[in-house]
Amino acid sequence: FKVWLEGVYREHARESLNFFEHNIQVWRQVWRALERSDIALIILDARCPLFHFPHALWRHITADMGRDAVIVLNKCDLVPLEAVSAWVRHFEGMLGEGPGSC
């Protein structure tokens, strides 16, 4: 865990991470669930999806584990269709081709 967390700290400023990203108990539960899963869903609030997008977790699932992952935009009914489409394009461009999907 320490090695993994140090890698996260190298890529992201500590103050930009929330409490749960520093908590080993949370990560143990996430890792157990991922070990038993064939695919992971990353559910993001469409009103501000970048705030909820866990970059380190996405990379862990898709690159380290080689698993498929899908981004699900939730609460799309609260956002104009143009904004939802723009977010989909953003994530497709940001994540590119690979085991993940948007």
Give the tags.
single chain; 102 residues; alpha/beta; three-stranded parallel beta sheet; 3 strands; globular; GNL1-like; P-loop_NTPase
What does this structure look like?
The protein is of the alpha/beta class and about 100 residues long. The chain has one domain (about 1-100). Helices cover about 50% and strands about 15% of the residues. It contains five helices and three strands, in the order ααβααβαβ. The chain has helices at about 1-10, 25-35, 50, 55-65, 80-95, and strands at about 40-45, 70-75, 100. Strands 1-2-3 form a three-stranded parallel sheet. Helix 5 links the parallel strand 2 and strand 3.
Brief overview:
The chain is of the alpha/beta class. The protein has one domain. The chain is built from five helices and three strands.
Write the layout of secondary structure elements.
Elements lengths: L1 H10 L12 H12 L3 E7 L3 H4 L2 H10 L3 E7 L6 H15 L4 E2 L1
Parallel strand pairs: 1-2, 2-3
**pLDDT averaged residue by residue:** 85
Helix and strand pattern = HHEHHEHE
Strand content: 15-25%
Largest sheet: 3 strands, parallel
Q: Within the largest sheet, what's the order of strands?
A: 1-2-3
Total DSSP helices = 5
Which regions contain 5 or more consecutive residues with pLDDT less than 50?
none
Number of domains: 1
The total strand number stands at 3
Task: Work out the radius of gyration.
Answer: 14 Å
Structural class: alpha/beta
Indicate the percent of residues in helices: 40-55%
Shape: globular
Distance between the termini: 28 Å
